[in-house]
User: Fold these one by one.
Assistant:
Number 1:
Amino acid sequence: MRNILIVLLLLVICNVSANTVVVGKNSSIKTLRQGIAVAKDGDTVLLTKGTYKEGNIIINKSIHLIGVYAPVLDGDHKNEILTLTGKNIVIKGIHFTNAGYSSLNDFAAIKVIDATRIIIENNTINNASFAIHISNATYTTVRNNIISGTHKSEHLSGNGIHLWKCENAMIEGNSVRGHRDGIYFEFVTTSTIQNNTSELNIRYGLHFMFSHNDIYLYNTFRNNGAGVAVMYSKSVRMENNVFDKNWGASAYGILLKDISNSHIRNNKFIKNTVAIHMEGSSRIEVSSNFFQGNGWALKVQASCDDNTFHHNNFNGNSFDVATNGTMTLNRFYNNYWDKYDGYDMNKDGMGDVPYHPVSMYAMVVEQNPTTLMLMRSFMVSLLDKAEKAIPGLTPENLVDNKPMLKPNKL
Amino acid sequence: MIRIENLTKRFKKLQALGDINALFNKGQVISLIGPNGSGKTTLIKSILGMVKPDSGCIYVDTKPINGDPSYRSQIGYMPQIGHYPDNMKVGHLFNMMKNIRKVSDAALDTDLLVKFNLVSIFDKPMRTLSGGTRQKVSAALAFYFNPDILILDEPTAGLDPLSSEILKEKIIEEKKKNKLILITSHILSDLDELTTHVMYLQEGKMIFLKDIGTLRQETGQDRLGKAIARIMRDGKKDALWIDEVLAVKETGITD
Amino acid sequence: MLKLSRYVLYDIIRNKVIIAYSLFLFIVSFSLFQLEENDSKAILSLLNIVLIVVPLISMIFTTIHYYNSYEFIELMLAQPLSRSGILLSEYTGVALSLLSAFFFGVGVPVLLFAFDETGLALLFAGGALTLVFTSIAFLASVKARDKARGIGSALLLWFYFALIYDGLVLLILFSFSEYPMEKFTLLLSALNPIDLGRIFIMLKMDVSALMGYTGALYKDFFGSGTGIIFTVGIMLLWIVLPLWWALNAFKRKDL
């Protein structure tokens, strides 16, 4: 049955203009190196089932390398497995394992350099320091790969999907775990990250720097050592993502540093130490997000201005909002706060009493973190109650003037 | 049987007991007499070990009492006002005491239990009892274990005349069994027929300890109340209190 | 001694206050688990009950019980029983009844709805705090001269441990904010059983991530075997030392 299928597949491919080179035990071409060597631009190289240990293989022609029944490319812990350069290369259906590690070079299971229109899909990569390393490439697609790293320490491990200086990349449907950073973007513009799952990485689920005009949607970032960091970028859209259980002494749902003109919309932040930490950021619209069970839902440093927070739901967070200054230039409106206890006389669904989301204790903790040892003590709740009655220390203009009485529909 | 040596106790400014020396023996009924605050109860409590003396020592059966509490198994004590756990039933109380004292049923003295008819209220909780009934319970408890020494603090106060008589008869009976009995009472007429010795205390000092025969002889008075009054008059001490005693005594007679 | 505890226990169990207390705890915990959408939120609310209500009720109940059974203690003192035996059996009786009220009222709902490490930590802390504050209340009662002073000092002590102490800690942390205080706060937490219990439970809830460096230090410490031994040891000290002090005072006390 299997053989018939392969033959049929071969026939179909042969009928298309390009040639097909079959590599495998049963073929005349036994090694991938030979297969690549004989293939010409536009050809397809079919790698059949088996384990291939051939050191580093370089592909610089426009070929499709397709694995049949998950052939294994084993780097033997010494080598970079595939190096791609050029254009229109497809790598599909191959299991990469045991890529080498070098402290001098960023060895990867698949490395793409100076390339355009590369597609890497449906591969499985394990035991690599860097799994997919792409630099200086345009129109790259990385889709539906399953990547799991070695869980080694931060400096021995590389990133799952690493992009440097790219444009128009599409990272989609991948699952990354056990690397240093799950997905790494540096100088990557007009690109999209969607439907990926990045979890259990040592540092960040997504590490994102100097990358403008990007979008990330419907991703799940779970249980990463430090959550997600988005830094030094403009015009980023972050929508419908889930930030879950990024729980640790310095873990964030999202760490925003020097971000401007961006949107954070419809995301779910569940049980993160700090759901959103913001510094040096301006003109960000944070709306319709759901914050549940986080240590801090929002930490907005005094260096942030002109941000708006509206129609978010805050539920069961230890601290809703914390800030380190007394002046804030950000706007809050129409959020739902579970700690709000005001009333609504005119029945418009909005409370008539403004809500101050920064508690007294949040201010105390911001100044002196050791005082967290008093968390949930009777004294702290009295302190908060007293401050509510006679505000004195909490920033007066950090206020939601129209808090919602019922949770916003998200 | 009980020997008291140089017993002294001070409560802040109040000299409760000042250098008391005494010897009580088997077969004696000692009446402790004195005005309020003269130290009677303090003396009793010292013997029971409830009050710790500042100096001096008490021997029961030649053994000093500090430390080992086992000497108290020879003592039956009836307090002035008996308070008991509210929810405990009378039957339970007797059971508990039996448990604590570890005395076999055969050795128990149930005389007063029967005479006061306490068995009929065995299933009543203590809090429902009247003051008089509590006194009966206290009295029955004090005699229950057939102790060699009985200490009775105002035993007849609060008892109806009939019960009071029963108790007095019981005391006389125990006296015949050669026991040592210590009684305090304001109603001197009650003591008349019981007492063999009188110990008179005032402001924590023992004024005298004499047997009743000597006392009657010295004063030429037959009744205890009058005898004491005579002594006090002669000593010209605290004449006011004597009038008080006589007044009480007279009401005792009219009773 | 255990015999006596049995009677004390029996007396208290029939007392309506202890039944009301266990029902109150049961209803509150049960409805918290029903009302809150998730169990960990209910545990958080229960935390406040355990840290505030349990010590308060333990203190007040113990003090009132002590004064109510004063005469009973007196009665027992007239029996061949040692003073420490009497006080210890009182303690055992009171502590056991308060513990059973707590384990019925809070334990049963927790075991039903949140039988995990946090739930067990909560039960451990609640049980330990019950014993600690019963102990402290005995000390306050034995030391105080009358009921009003006894209850007053019990309330003051509760107020100190529940509130004032944390205020002082806050003051200290701010006055010395330039110094590394993390290790010092460990010591501070040991000086207040309520704080120790709170931190112990919070770390089981994994709040340590919020606490940054302090949290990491606490997690390392309290999560290790040493930390558990430390917590149990300090709690034991908080139970034993006040009780020991109370026993010593009780032995010298005049009743």
Number 2:
Amino acid sequence: MRYLYIFLLTIAVSHVTLAQQAYDAASIPKELLPHASSVIRANDVTVEVKSLNDVIYHTRLIVTVLNKNGDDDAEIAIYYNKTSQLKSFRGIAYNEFGKPVGKIAERDLQDRNVVDGFSLFNDDRVKTFKPAITTYPYTVEYDYDTNEKQTLFFADWHPGQGVGTSVEHSSYKLLCKPDFNIRYKQINFSGNVATNEAKDLKTYEWSISNLKALRSEPYSPDQDLLLTSVRIAPEKFEYENISGSFTNWKEYGSFIYNKLVKDRQKLSPETEAAIKDLVKDISDPKLKAKRIYEYVQQKTRYVSVQIGVGGYRPFLASEVDQLSYGDCKALVNYTQSLLNVAGIQSYYVLNMAGSEKVSALPDFASMNQFDHVILCMPFKNDTTWVDCTSKENPFGYLGDFTDDRLVVACTPEGGILLRTPKYTTADNTQLRKGTFTLTSTGELRGDMHTEFRGAQYDNRYYMINETFTEQVKKLKELYPVENLEIQSLQLKQDKSLKPVTTEDIKISARDYVAQNGGRFFFYPNTANRSNHVPKNVTNRVNPVYINRGYLDEDQITYSLPDGYSITSKPIKINLDKPFGKYAVSMSIVGNKLIYKRSLQINDGTYDKDMYADLVDFYQTVYDGDNYTLTMEKK
Amino acid sequence: MRKLLLLISILSFCQRIVAQDFDYGKCDAADVAMKKYDKDTSAHAVVLREFGKAWVSTNDGVPLIYEYHIKIKLFDSKAFRHGDVSIPLYIGDNDHFEKAYDIEGVTFYTDDNGATQRIDLDKNKIYHEKISNHYERLKFALPNLRPGCIIEYRYKTESPYHFNFHKWVFQWDIPKIYSEYEAHIPAIYEYNVSKRGVLALTTNKAELESECFSYYGTKCDCSKLTYGIKDIPAFIEEDDMTSPDNYISAIYFELAQMTNSRGVKEKITKEWSDIDRELKQNEDFGDQYKRKGLFKERLIPVLANLTDSLDKAKAVYRYIQNSFKWNRMYNAFSDDGIRKALESHTGSSADINLSLIAALSAAGINTEAVILSSRDNGFVNKLYPGVSNFDYVIAKVNIDNKSYLLDATDPLLGFGMLPLRCINDQGRVMSLNKPSYWIDMVSPQKRSTTMNLDLTLQDNGKIKGTITTYSLGYAAYEKRRAIKKFNSVDEYVENLGEKDSKFKILKSEITDLDSLDKPVTEKYEVEIDAYNNLNHENISFNPAFWDHTSVNPFKLNERSYPVDLGSASEDKMVVTLHYPANFEITAQPAAVAIALPIKGGRFLTDINIADNTLSYSQIEQFNKAIYSPEEYPYLKEFFNKMIQNQKANVVFHKKAN
């Protein structure tokens, strides 16, 4: 009897130890600690598909925060709206040793609207909680269920690895009836999905362990391409009153076009007549389209209102016609409706916008890969693209917001995977010529002419329609010239099919030449001095990625003051690397100093070992750009 | 600031004049045709007319009614943001909340045929946004905006909060042709009215409206106050300025007195002596900082073996700093009491610092509360005693005739150091046993650093040596923050070494990182890849390379408002460079000494050469946190001269063999 008692006690004790271990900071595997400020101990999601409009997500998240920098990783944010509701929530906070120190209840969550930064109104809300624990390390555990009344999109699996965060264990499990089918795509996942099919239950399960915390590495590709994830999409789905199915981009395009766009393009007879009248004297379809795009640009403005299915379906074209505003979907749908009147074919194109290029996954169609809509016109051998939310872009110009990425055009014939135009290194130029006089009092005076093309066309976007006072303020921030005064400024934009922005300025700057003890110092590079060298990263993991290439050329001619001569060595640099070229030269002819600089950066992905070269390259550029000449009186 | 405030007497009445609201939904052909605003041709928009009216309704609960009406000319698409309108509402609970109604909007625009069209706001397109438990917003976008269009909208709000009589902001970031506000105040209420900003009122009337209001069956008169300003210029915000609210022209109201249902006058705004007494009893203030009992047991381990008062105070301060995570809310009053804050380890500035005051008192240390207005909240209105201007509270500890101001919201602040958000104007010291009094909210600390570089130029072209930096005051605080952003000191040093590819840290030592009352000392043994080799006839070296200013933060020629640098500062650097015997110095920077007027600051350099050793020293001092617009040109030129001089280099020349 006595033995049995001890045996029972041992079991009980060991059970407690086991349970605590998951929360005990000391039990984190050592290899997960370097560069980590938090460790995800467990991130387990179970998705239960009950029917096409009833899906339960059960989430269990345990995070150990190692220091103050990890506090944000212990914050939970549960998003909800009309189709997605929080059903139950509980949370527990643990101390360093895994002992519970507090409970977190649903009433402790803060409820607020989601501020997306661009919408006038959206109906998404969020419940958040951030623990306030002042001793480190500590651990929090959250356990909650949400109910999705839709199957149009599923949460993908992202284990949670990131800069400063390692993952001890994460899993994703999906349970459904045998007649419910999903498609999935595994990205950077070397394991296998575990599947099981019983009479009335089918399961899929992915899991992963021990992912190390990442360091931030400059010039890295999009994180989604490097981290482990599994993307999930249903074959059949419902959302509000809309049902459908798709298994590839072609079917996706049909769904979007037929269910969400097609019926929203009717215009009033007056508007139709006005559009016909607008283009009646133009025969070239491309020029017709240009006229209509410019009409939309001057008539409408961007206002975003996202409510329920309105997050996916555009406003009625007739409504935009009447209100003169709408979001990207509404404005593209409206423009397309107007183009239809003029007999011009166009596509409603979904894409992921942003300066960083993010493409649709070519072999996996799902709803949650896009956040923007643009318009494409498939003229013969001359496919033309426009962004209808811009009031300023030239016709046919996308800029760096949506260039060079895979996008999906939604047409009556189905979806088509397309790539938006690329602005190449040779396209993206900034060409400058300056003619200056240096006076014996150290003043710089003269003119500078700069042309911007390709993705650099937009370099002056933020000041183009500003007043002179405001432009002067911005140029003073932009140019690294102390005591800069701007006598005159002309900014012109040629919005033709090969758009160019031209800047002509007349400037002066006293004390451009610094004086000290009878010697005079100045930068021969007046206007385009690099001020940043990327940091060295030892033991780099990621390949080197340059998102967009460009070419900058500066040629500056100075007239030196009479009786002075340059006493320091002329600068000459010629550097040629796979990712870029840098050349600087200087010549003195009579009292003229001619300074030439060109910097070319080539986009692309390069081996990680080339990063050290890139840092050296930029260091040379920095030193070359900031080279100071010394001048002395003869 | 006192100069800018203007007391407006509401006692003198004159004759009744008709209401000044303008007709809704009508637009003037001249306004439609207007191409730009002559008085400010750079404006993207101009308010043609703005009218507001606030009055007290005799309906249930005698709510405050606010009527707002505006008409704006939009010259170009940059002004279209004014077409997105938002009406903020405060929701106290189910019985006390603000609501908006009678919302109307219209856009007048010129169509493609040159005809003026109007389009009304569709009421179904007004969106109701619930931001959080207490804040909501009605939002709408006016339709059909085109360059040159005119938008007009009006609405009413109803509020149960009499103490919160609607302020009127005359000055926006776009100019206004005329803006007028009409306040109808029944005689049972008395408000203190104050004006900020330099613009003069062009309309300023006080009239009597007899029997305009009835209250529990008794009729009473109202005073009708009309304030208007014509030709209001746009307010242009400048960089590095103290709160714009200090300068924007606006009218503020503060409830001073009201007559209750029994006909008894209740003073709301009182003498400081009344406020002192009340705050001591206030359940969200005095009641909280008197809760010494909460700390008796908690402090036993904290105070163990301590006898000296200052040591005790420091220990208690550390304890409170480390007990809380500040929720970033500014407040002078506790939300749910300090007991709850202590249990949840989080709270507002009031929760944390009232806890601090209670804990210090529990430790037997003479402590007072100081209420203040944070920097972003603007200067304190000192014309009337009152607490509505204050949004922060800190502790004042008095030990041996010395006093220390303490804020425990940030665990990296040293004892007696205040965060910059508290350094603003004056604070009011609320003592338990003395009348309250003002103190200047200035910091005894400045930002200061001392750097010593002891370097040797080696034959291989590399520079080797040690760099030691001492950071004091706010510089120490900033340094600690920067280091704590990394998971460990090693990671900080690793990152520092990676920042510059020419710069290698061979050894590092950081001391007193956690001793908040001491300077942070960083000592690095470094190797700098300065020159590929020394096979040059001349080598140029900038002695200020380690710490120099290369960009003047002040670029504009004029300044309208004071420049706020945050705190006074002092940076010292001494560079010692030993160079090889086969080199001599042929050119060197001249020593400089420049100063700002009225001891505002100075910049000094000195250079000495002896025994193949170059010694360079540099001192940069700013003796004030805030510089007036009159001092601005000097400040700008001071930076210019500093930058100029720091460009000068030393030239080493290889001696002939």
Number 3:
Amino acid sequence: MKRGIWDRETVALLLLAAILPLAVTWLLATGMSGAFRLLFVLVAAGAWHLVFMVARAQPPSFAGAITALAIAVLAPTDIGPFAMLLGISFGVIAGELAFGGWGRNVVNPATVAIAFLGFGFAAAPWPVLPVQLGWSVAAVAAIGTAVGVMSVRVIAGAIALLLLGWWQGLLTIPAFTAAAVVLVLLVCDPVTAAATGLGRWLYGLLYGALVLMFAAGWHGAAPVQAAISAALLVTLAAPLLDEIALRIWLARSKRVG
Amino acid sequence: MASSESLWSTLSAPLIRQNPVTLQILGICSALAVTTSLDTALTMAASLTVVVVVAAGVISLIRRHIPSAIRLIIQIIIIASIVIVIDQVLKAWFFELSQRLSVFVSLIATNCIVLGRTESFARSNPPLRSMVDALGSGLGYGLVLVLVGACRELFGMGKLLGMQVLPLAESGGWFTPLGLMLLAPSAFFLLGGLIWALRSIWPEQAEAPEFPPYSRGPTDTGEAR
């Protein structure tokens, strides 16, 4: 084994294994309609991975399945198949494959796809997540951090603020569930999350703070909508947070000598 | 016939091969702002084409008399005068349309395409050639505007030039308008996709990659660097 076992697909498979509890819980809660939805998204996203493999020799990734699950769980419901296909294609291509595949993308493709569908079809209702999905997040976070594909700092920072908001009565149970599911499905994606120690703390805290801010000030927003918007904004801020962490680290190392 | 051939190539080059918007990424501010519907895009394209052609002609006529030190001031004054005339014409005859175009017709004065063509071409070429070159640039800009504008109006409202083309779902048809198309980001997406498509068809338009991807050589052991 010349190259070790930690290549891109190992990370993707471990992530997939970590979110299995959530996937199973969601499938149990939604039944056949959920299974069909997931299958549809899987086929659509997988087709684009194959197209890019043929056209640009980009190896497809198991991470596409995570993207598909996130879209199936979180995308607005009651959207026609053609519109759904458009949103998935946009997210997968413009969010991930155009940059060279999973690992080179700047934003999470599922976040892009869901935000695209949400803003594009503003009248479509957002899904209401079953409450047991929130409990499965605990299992996902435990597996993800134990095998090292999710950052403890991100989860700790975000959950701390979310719990604070819940304790203060700012977050309702559906809002907390949505924020937690989005946290493990989208925000903890190791590619688009912050990559430095301090950056990850800031990243998790910023996500929690944005969710709390939307809960306090954004009236009429569905819980999932607010969480997705927070995830989109915090993803864009991740490079900045890393840059701040690096500057602080450099300044300190210069001072120490 | 050599000169007429080169006149033709001067006219046709900026349409696709040297398109000011998709290759030089100039003038995209207005290209994004006025393309929510096809009629505003067409008006804007026509206005800009007129301005750039007339400005190129005038500046080319007096090119030997423009002191180089104040040439930008002179060019801006000429361009701005023409823009004001166009703006007044639109307000006089197409008032409703000019209201929807709001400030963007006046902003043609600062459009990079106009100043770019007068500064780089009309200042050193005879009037006919300059005007043909300017016409090509204006048409190239208009081509992109019309494409983006048609896409946005068709998919955002199901209309073209105000006429219902795709039957809306709320009035018994099958088409659900994509509200995102009427927001500013969609113009970026469409323009980006257009540039991507053009540069895939004509790879010589693509810029050299700033960060070439790391490739495994035959001697590489695959260790992380």
